[in-house]
Amino acid sequence: MPVLTWLLLGTVLCSLLGMWLLFCCWRQRGRVLQWLDACPEAVLVVGRDGKIRYANHLACELSGGLSIDQLKGRPLADFIPHYGDGHGPVWEALFFAGESRAHGSLGIKTWLNQQQHSCEVHIQATSLPERKAVVFLLRPANQELFPHPQRYLAEKLLQTAEQDAGLGSWVLHIDSGKLDWSVTVHDIFGTDPDSFHPTEERYFACVHPQDRLRVRQELDHYMALGQPFDVEYRIVRPDGSIRHLLERNHVHYCDDGSIDYLFGTVIDMTKQKQLQEQLQLSQLAVEHCSEGIALSDEKLHWLSLNPALCQMLGQDDWPADQPLPLRQQQTLLTLFELQNLLAGESHWQGELTLAPPNRQPCAVWCSATRVVDKQQVVRWVWIFTDIRRIKEVEARLHNLAFHDTLTGLANRSLFNEQLRQAMQQAREQHKPLAIAFIDLNGFKKINDLLGHEAGDDVLCEVAHRLQQACRQQDMVCRWGGDEFALLLPQCELGPELDELLSRLQSSVALLRQHQGRLLPVTASMGVALYPDSAQTAEALMKRADEAMYRAKGESGRRIWIDDGRQLTTLTPTAYPLPQS
Question: Which of 133, 338, 436, 456 is deepest in the core (most CB within 10 A)?
């Protein structure tokens, strides 16, 4: 009797335990299905036979209105032709990889819905070997977004370019230590633009403690050289996460040679760093990676190139014994030179240019890592990042730093640089040059009576006329306000210079009207000659400036020339004032 009682009691307890486990499994499955249905992207669960096991409501919408029950059991190949048929290396990697869990991007594929309407979708796949299934996340390709930073100089002009390139812009004022960051820099550093006010000190507080001293030393070293330079370092964000950054720095000098400010760009290179550290990436990840990836042996014979790199080269494949067309600056690297570049290094990175024949060169950031496997076989893993958009933004930043934003003419910085180069060339070739400073007469009345917008129109028109009247080798600069400067190479005293100066002064003359009253604009011009007037750029500009103010004070004598001995006046050819 006691034995029978214990048997009955054990049977009841086992039944209760089984019912409880069944309830827990049902409850857990319900939570998973709730999560999948709440996912902000279309989700499909596909079995090894290529048929759909589950779809959330977004996947139903993407299918063209089919219900979940209608999608279940349908082959994936009905919606992604020639891809979900259960064959091919990608399918094998997802379903037949043993206990490993493959994960990665399958790239952009064409999706056909029930009505045979097609769209491009970006697919992420994760294998579930224990379930003999794969989870697919599908996102319409046109939903991918990028940050929208702003720029210190001319924010509106650079918004689109920075958005495409995904980089931030900054300016460091040396005297005050104040930093100007674009919105993207704040995004990269994880700071709030409204509450975080960057300074040089607060910037270095964000730099990883192990990198802080090195970054400070590199900045001091390269600033002394005066050349654009790159610095790679880590930062610690407020949430504790670590990001790897690549920073391009440019130095801006005052006329006296002191550093005025640093400016440049910064980009988050964390993903590239992670790619470098994961050298055991599956063929699935390499095949669909947007970065160019190549594998070579110790002698730099190419073993494999991924599709992204082949696309950069414009080739379907690349011969193993043929060197990649890589240029460093303007020099095409031979196999011997490439081996010397990597000699004694386990890791190398730098800017190169892919220059395949019959194609536009492609600027790339190249990273090469030496890998030794368990059999002591040496391999080099190469990663090529397309930085053409970054270079385009840098070119625009350079243009803004050396050109006047209103007229598009060269500014003082560019004029001073070009003047020193022209003087060096004049010394070597024994050919004199001239510079001219121009001040507009009557411009203040235009501003006062017609407004600043009309004044800006006059400045733009004068700039255009001066460029039209100049020779091809001459340079026109907006010096500031209503003053302009001209660099005139290969000019000496004589009829040719007189004719050129008269033509330039005549081109500036224009008229505006206000309430029936004519408002003429004319030019006072001062000219200095090198080497007769002065031997240095500063002294030459001072002589031209003094001659211009002499011309401005002499009514009717509006071109004065400093020939090194005295100031002489030039009576320009009479010119008619144009109608407004």
Answer: 436
C-alpha 395/C-alpha 487 separation (Å) is 24
Give the tens place of pLDDT for each residue, 385-395. Answer: 888 888 888 88
Each residue's pLDDT tens digit, 421-435: 999 999 999 899 999
CA distance 267 to 182: 12
Q: Report pLDDT for 166.
A: 56
Q: What is the CATH number of domain 155-268?
A: 3.30.450.20
Hey, what's the torsion of the CAs at 368, 370, 371, 376, to 10 degrees? Answer: 150
Task: List all residues 6 or more positions away from 520 whose beta carbon is below 8 Å from its beta carbon.
Answer: 441, 442, 509, 510, 511, 577
CATH pick for 273-388 out of 3.30.450.20, 1.10.600.10, 3.40.50.720, 3.40.720.10: 3.30.450.20
Cis bond upstream, residue 140 (ω within 30) = no
Distance CA 295, CA 301 (A): 9
CA distance 197 to 224: 27
Count of helix runs (H) and strand runs (E) in the chain: 18, 24
Cβ atoms within 10 Å of 65's Cβ, excluding its own: 11
Both tokens of residue 476? 């026109």
